């Protein structure tokens, strides 16, 4: 028999990586990570009123919705198999003050939305944020006094707000404020109020990022913010500090951990999963969404492929799920390819 060994076989030691890539069935058989509808959490924006679907200019395809329309959206999400929604309120400016006191109103916009969605669509999860920024007149995540975010007083307010959100039917409290000690304090408060089954998804590493701009437009805080959030968000340069922050949240009783933003911090996703073994989630934030949409609108990227590829990257980095404004679009695509 003629020896057909090629010099490539000699160079590679007969190891050819392309053997498992030559056919679709083989590529599918050895695929290491898959994106499924179970990986998706859909963030939505709530506004007062009824019958409102208000497009957000900086986030094409994303709308602010009144509660009745949010209920309709929740039904559609549930029908597509999306496990959970993350709700964010755009509170009337007249209700915002220096301390964000409206967050303590048990009948505030976010709690009304939770109650309405849980009543209409009981099988979909509701994740609520207790940060004060949608409720403050200065746009900060905490109580702002004499040029400083007051940590401990803010935490006391967050605990009360978390209990009110749980009372309204929230399944998971997701504190995004980055105050020291808030995870342990919220856990104690929830347990004391009889909400032992309500989980905490900690925004364990929320970075002082430029990628939040469109979100701030969505909740009408961009024109309110005084200064910046660098005194409580993590410096984008600091990976070790981010892991220390996450470790404290784990010790304080967080059930799940989140990295925000997502794609620029895939290394943090991986390090957190490796270090702690808890469920890890990434928030593909508004700026990440907007840049894909803008590039696709200009014909510079295949928008659908970019959307799916970036979400798969989170899975490869160890994430158990992703908060993404693409959730509905992705769920529709996945439902066609099952």
From TrEMBL:
Keyword 4Fe-4S: no
Annotated Gene3D superfamilies: Aldolase class I
Coiled coil stretches, renumbered: none
GO molecular function: porphobilinogen synthase activity
Top-level enzyme category: lyase
Similarity field: Belongs to the ALAD family.
Organism: Peteryoungia desertarenae
Transmembrane domains' residue ranges: none
Record bears the keyword Chaperone: no
Pathway membership, UniProt: Porphyrin-containing compound metabolism; protoporphyrin-IX biosynthesis; coproporphyrinogen-III from 5-aminolevulinate: step 1/4
Subunit text: Homooctamer.
SMART domains cross-referenced by the UniProt entry: ALAD
Keywords, in A-Z order: Heme biosynthesis, Lyase, Porphyrin biosynthesis
Pfam families: ALAD
PANTHER family assigned: DELTA-AMINOLEVULINIC ACID DEHYDRATASE
Stated name of the protein: Delta-aminolevulinic acid dehydratase
Signal peptide: none
